[in-house]
Design a protein that fits this description.
single chain; 131 residues; alpha/beta; Rossmann fold; 4-stranded parallel sheet; 4 strands
Length: 131
Amino acid sequence: MTGNTDSVLLDTSVWIDALRGITSNIVATTQELLKDDRVLTCGPVIFEIKRGLRPSERNRIMPLFNALIRLPFDETVWDAAGDLDASLRKKGITIPPMDVIIAQVCLHHKVSLFTLDEHFRSVPGLKVFEP
């Protein structure tokens, strides 16, 4: 860690890696961010997590997400996400729609995104968290 105390939104890709214990440094960084109370989430991440959980995992994992600060978003974020997607596609960059919304939530709230998905680096102005 760099000593930075800013909050960070964790993308679904990071949660999957951390919860499954796939990459030790991702697990350690996620644990450190949680310990320091720096982790944020948003509706689209919750959606992606819930749709991928096995029934046996729900009772164990969802309380963690319920304890996190969930960044809100309104019609202006939806509109801006549509504009962002259109501008990226005009440049030949295609990002999954849910990820465009996650990026726009981060841009709107001026928070960094911790992700394993390289396509987020194509989003102008998005701060990608570097552990």
